[in-house]
Write a structure and sequence with these properties.
The structure is a homodimer of 401-residue chains. Chain A is of the alpha/beta class. Helix content of chain A is 35%, strand content 27%. An eight-stranded mixed beta sheet of chain A has the order 3-6-2-1-9-11-12-10, sandwiched between helices. The first copy, chain A, has a six-stranded antiparallel beta sheet with strand order 14-15-13-16-18-17, covered by helices on one side. The longest helix of chain A has 25 residues.
Chain lengths: 401, 401
């Protein structure tokens, strides 16, 4: 059985924790597993190096940043290999380049183009535990590239795909994916299994655990992902393809996003292409639009609503002023939040959305905007009711059971 | 004019010092020079990483150590490149691999086998300042290798050779090579020029400034070396081939080595090969023999003397006991030191050694052993007279003039 494990910055945060990781890897080895272990930089290291660079300029060259930042993962990989060897295990440390990871030229946010797993496979054949510095590769010119924040997850998933590994285990200081944020609802329960799509929709629940790009890649490569804690022997959460069994669960989780501001445009003129114009202009200004809702209005004119991150509401207002002649009126509200209910079960079961609306209504929480997808219902409500709404929905769908 | 500069750990010890180095590089650039700049790890960084590894084992694998330790120079190279770019200069950072440095397989003490300077030359043609992470290369399998302590000097000299650079400037916190250790003789003078051979004989004077292997390589590749300080605009010392001008100087420097212990074997039996047996046995035990002196004794039997580092005297005694039947008697003295007078002028001038003997005799310093080479006279004396001997010799040869 070939397993790719990935240990994040907190899991390798100091020498004692690296020792702990070495013990976990050794244990898996004793269970007869072949292992490729991807590591992040020791926590704090990457920020320290960024701070160094910013001492000289706020805009350091990305090529240089990649050379700088990739050093942190190399240090951890070498140390973990040394720690394993000290315990009598045959280990070998590899950089991204040595592991065969080739990326495009987009420094600091490179995409993996191909992986030549030969060196890793040869080492595995020789009975070695392979330790790979995460987050990095080289481009076709041989320059070091990095994969962006959380890129070590991506390294792990991509290696698991290239090696055709049986599973990929992502270790952090959180022991899996929960039905909602336990800080809001202490009854939140860890999920045993969740689909890739649900995971993507619940990404803010897993933000500390799994990078979105990694989940997308895992879905594409059909890599069985486990989110686990390196500090416990808990089973963790399996992120995988939908199974029939999974469809029995209507709702997997509820999630709160407080960083939302609402813009509603009333009486948008009915000329073709107006929505495209508005959202193109917002995109040109790098304003990140989340929900978009369009209703047919009363007099033939349209009502158009959308949400943006709170920090971008002022820029969004400015852009909207250019459309003055096309719009009758505008509302803004920075004090809103988004609550979402996610579950693959919604696809085949009606009434899931209705249950959310009733539950909120029963608590006098007014819903300002609604948007639904196949596996998600999102609602914009007054920000101050956010936590109450999460607890209400968590109970309504019996997620604590 | 193409110049290779190398800045050591102290010169890039913190962000302000890297800024200072950037200013110096920028100044050289403004003078119209093409530049390849080799950097060490920030001071303390390499020892920190070694400490990390030794947390796990006293004998970490050398391959892993190379991956670990090479990260320090990469950080400095990236930061210096960023600092130069922030000042508006076009710079590019390269790892040892990217600079084309290929070594043998001897991890942690690799030797440079070849350098492909194409990438550096292309960057120079594009008007770029090339910053290279020192101390490292890759072997033919693509594994990272390092060149041993002081290896960045070696990188710089090798790159200067491969690029056919006009000169190679080694920057540290010392502004050149002195006639003797200024802590012993405050009148010690900085030398403007010295030959490669003298530098090698005076290596302990330059230990903080220049690694011996680098001087040997510079001699072989005929690279003009400058030892300079990154904290002053002092001219530094040029280390180069002997010139006629240089021969006018009889003596370049005097140097003290306190880490010496003397062994004298009296009445060594006259059978052929006895000396070879003794020193082979010492070598087998990894005992580092420095001076070796053999005199014909009075009754046909030979007297044999040698020196070893003080820490190895006990092991040396033990080895000598095996030769009991071949030796009449033995003397040991741990309280000795070696003073040496070095100068290419000795080759063509007689009386240089005699002046040393007279000067010491005039101060009642007894000389226990004498050994001479073409450009060096070394004398073993009582340890307590070491500093006095240095000051006496420094004055006798008018090195303060």
């Amino acid at each position: 059985m070939l397993v790719v494990q990935k240990y994040g910055g907190t899991s390798v945060g100091d020498l004692e924790r690296i020792e702990n990781v070495a013990n976990r890897v050794a244990k898996a080895r004793e269970e007869g597993k072949d292992l490729v272990v991807v590591v992040s930089a020791m926590s704090g290291e990457t920020n320290k190096l960024i701070g160094y660079a910013e001492h000289f300029t706020k805009n350091p060259a990305k090529k240089e940043m990649d050379m700088l930042l990739s050093s942190g993962e190399r240090v951890t990989a070498a140390l973990l290999s040394i720690a394993l060897q000290a315990k009598g295990y045959d280990a070998v440390a590899m950089t991204g380049r040595q592991a065969g990871i080739v990326t495009d030229d987009l420094h600091t946010y490179a995409r993996i183009e191909k992986i030549d797993p030969t060196a890793m496979q040869n080492a595995i054949k020789e009975g070695k535990i392979v330790i790979v510095a995460g987050f990095q590769g080289i481009n076709k010119d041989g320059s070091v590239t990095t994969l962006g924040r959380g890129g070590s997850d991506l390294s792990a998933v991509a290696l698991a795909g290239a090696l055709n590994a049986d599973q990929c285990e992502i270790y952090s200081d959180v022991d899996g994916i929960y039905t909602t944020d336990p800080r809001i609802e202490p009854k939140a329960k860890k999920l045993d299994v969740i689909s890739y799509d649900e995971m993507l929709e619940l990404s803010s629940l897993g933000a500390k655990v799994l990078q979105n790009r990694s989940v997308e890649l895992a879905k594409k490569l059909k890599v069985k992902l486990y989110a686990k804690s390196s500090f416990s022997d808990n089973e963790g959460t399996l992120i995988t393809e939908e199974s029939e069994n999974m469809e029995e669960v209507l709702v997997s989780g509820v999630v709160l996003d407080k960083n939302q501001a609402r813009v509603t445009l009333r009486g948008v003129s009915d000329r073709p292409g107006i929505a495209a114009e508005i959202f193109s202009k917002l995109a040109d200004e790098n304003i990140n639009v989340d929900m978009i809702i369009q209703n047919v209005g009363t007099d033939g004119a349209t009502n158009l609503g959308f949400t943006v991150p709170q920090s971008e509401i002022d820029n969004a207002k400015k852009v909207m002023e250019e459309f003055d002649h096309d719009i009758e009126g505008m509302d803004y509200d920075e004090n809103v939040c988004k609550v979402s209910v996610v579950g693959v079960g919604m696809k085949s079961h009606s009434g899931v959305a209705a249950k959310a609306f009733s539950a909120l209504a029963a608590n006098n929480i007014n819903i300002q905007m609604i948007s639904t997808s196949e596996i998600k219902v999102s609602m914009i409500i007054d920000e101050k009711y956010g936590e109450l709404a999460i607890r209400t929905l968590h109970e309504a769908y019996e997620l604590d059971k």
